[in-house]
Amino acid sequence: MTTISNKLILAKPSFILFVVLTAFLSSCQFEEVKNQESSTYSILPVNKNASQETKALYHQLNMLSKDYVLVGHQDDLAYGVNWWDEQGRSDVKDITGSYPAIGGWDIGGIGRGWPMNLDSIPFDKMRNYIQQAYEHGSINTISWHTYNPVTDDGSWTDKTIANPTLSQILPGGEFHNNYVEMLDLAADFIQSLKSKDGNLIPILFRPFHENNGSWFWWGEIHCSPEQYKELYQFTMKYLIETRKLNNLLFVYSPDRAFTNEKEYLDRYPGDDFVDVIGYDDYYSFKIGDTLGLLQRLEVISDFAEKRNKIAAFTETGIEGLKGDKIFTEVFLPILQHNEKTKKMAYIMFWRNANTHHFYVPYLGQEEAEDFKAFRNHESILFGDDLPKMYQ
Ligand code: BMA
């Protein structure tokens, strides 16, 4: 960690101590990492062949998660409310002066060979945005609203009728090759995400999310836990072993249908397949279930700690920001609630599509001042606040 932003130094004198201690502790503290690299990294990805930059990113996220929460925003550089594809623009930057720490992207549609994703972002542009985010020191995460490899429909399905897709696309299934073809197209895109010096850009990859609801074809009533796990495991192994993609960290992110660790683990692919212990939740805000939400953050925080992984609030937000001081009086108190909820490595807000469907303020929107105050909190990190994440 060679460069540390002013915000880190000013906001948190303890951070300086933390940096000094990191160097000291690196030789003695991390015996749990049974690897020669324990002198460099506090934590290692499941892919033993992960690139140096990917390992560094995972380590940095782990170290920062002890005191800070990184803030992410979906499709941030691509568009915002009332604008589309303006070079360098971002609603988050318009308001706070900084890009978010994490840019979220979705490759839904890639498997159909489309030139653009399901929300009309051309993949060529998405590649540029990902490169831009990387070059200015931020992090990228990719989710995949996977089209149905059997029917060509979208990810969404009737949540009351069991959809047989998953059983048909697993190895041995009649349509397995359809899925592999789609996965190859996803892999081709990931393989094209290179920095100026030609290295693959590290990506937090979050496939088959919200699997404990039934709105997606990989959801709860559409497959058994074993089938879901097999799909996730197959996907992960294919990307690493067959496609040799060593720039991925794997994120698991069910929705809110769990209250304890046992339930969280129902469809968990396993410690050898997951780097980030995530969770998506919008609905708890709609129904005011703050206690349940806190409990779930505690569950993932505890579990991540036990397994020496990181936890993250992988997708959330309040659509249309209906309310007052939503960032400092709703999100911040949740993240700051206790030592467990404080351990979230990051929080990802969803996309700013239009004046109804948006999750962070845009120029002129009434929550703008509150979002600035949120950014200025000592525990919150945006892009400009990050140390070097890939070293
Ligand atoms: C949903 C909505 C949709 C969008 C989809 C994938 O939450 O934002 O409009 O198509 O995510 O990004």
How is this structure best described in words?
The longest helix has 18 residues, at 225-242. 35% of the residues lie in helices and 13% in strands. The protein is built from 13 helices and eleven strands. It starts with 5 loop residues before the first helix and ends in a 10-residue tail after the last strand. With 391 residues, it is of the alpha/beta class. It has an eight-stranded parallel β-barrel with strand order 1-4-5-6-7-8-9-10, surrounded by four helices. Strands 2-3 form a two-stranded antiparallel sheet. Helix 12 runs parallel beside helix 13 (368-376). The structure holds beta-D-mannopyranose (BMA). Beta-D-mannopyranose binds at residues 106, 118-119, 145, 350-351.
Low-confidence stretches: 27-35
The succession of helices and strands, N to C, reads: HHHEEEHEHEHHEHEHEHHEHEHE
Structural class comes to: alpha/beta
Distinct small molecules bound, one entry per kind: beta-D-mannopyranose
**Gross morphology:** globular
Percent helix range: 25-40%
> So what's the oligomer here?
single chain
How many helices in DSSP terms?
Answer: 13
Q: What is the strand tally?
A: 11
Tell me what portion of residues adopts beta-strand conformation. 5-15%
- Give the C-alpha Rg: 20 Å
Largest sheet: 8 strands, parallel, barrel
Enumerate the strands of the largest sheet in spatial order, edge to edge or round the barrel.
1-4-5-6-7-8-9-10
Key terms:
13 helices, alpha/beta, 391 residues, two-stranded antiparallel ribbon, binds beta-D-mannopyranose, 35% helix
